[in-house]
Amino acid sequence: MADLDRIRNRAGALATVALALIAAAMGKLADVLDQNWVLIALWAASCAMAVFSVAGAASVLSARAVLGRTDTRLAAQGTRPLRASLAEAYVGTVGIGEETVRTYLTVFRDAVTLAVAAALAFFILLGGIALNEQGTKKTDETEQKCLTSTTCSAPPSPR
Fold it and tell me: I need a labelling partner for 81 at 20 to 30 A (CA). Which of 9, 94, 107, 141 fits?
């Protein structure tokens, strides 16, 4: 039960972080739509991975845990000798609980992997947007500017 509680607490934190990542990605939607198709695809992949991460964390938080327990009161009232039957019951209940914790841990681990991949893709996307904007700014600065009219009559400067 303690292992399961730790996994669920971490899943709650992961869901919060992944939701914040989705909000940040949605905030960049207008900037992304002005970019080339590679950055749009990277943005879509980042959003999809973040959504799947939230889904994994939510499944860990909301799924019903199957943990076996041995009822000691009933075991004490059982027939003698008890050791063999109690040992069999204990092995069965522990096995079910261990399998449940392993399943929760696997789903949580996959959700963390998706969240990290989504964040990495989003940071690469931000870098791509910054590089595109920097390239656009340099192109705009090299053009000749006229202060008096919208068209310039001066000859272009030699390069």
Answer: 94
* DSSP type of residue 80: S
Q: Look at the alpha carbons of 92, 96, 97, 99 in this order and tell me if their dihedral is positive or negative.
A: positive
Instruction: Give the separation between CA 140 and CA 142, rounded to whole angstroms.
Output: 6
Could you please report the per-residue DSSP string of 8-73?
HHHHHHHHHHHHHHHHHHHHTHHHHHTS-HHHHHHHHHHHHHHHHHHHHHHHHHHSPP------HH
Q: Is 115 exposed, middle or buried, given 0-12, 13-18 or 19+ CB atoms closer than 10 A?
A: buried
Whether 128 has a pLDDT exceeding 60, the answer reads yes
For residues 93 and 68, the answer to whether their CB atoms sit within 8 Å is yes
* Residues 6 or more apart in contact with residue 34 via CB below 8 angstroms: none
Report helix, strand or coil for 87.
Answer: helix
Local confidence band at 36 (pLDDT 50, 70, 90 cut-offs) = confident
Sign of CA dihedral 79, 84, 89, 90: positive
Structure tokens at 4: 């399961």
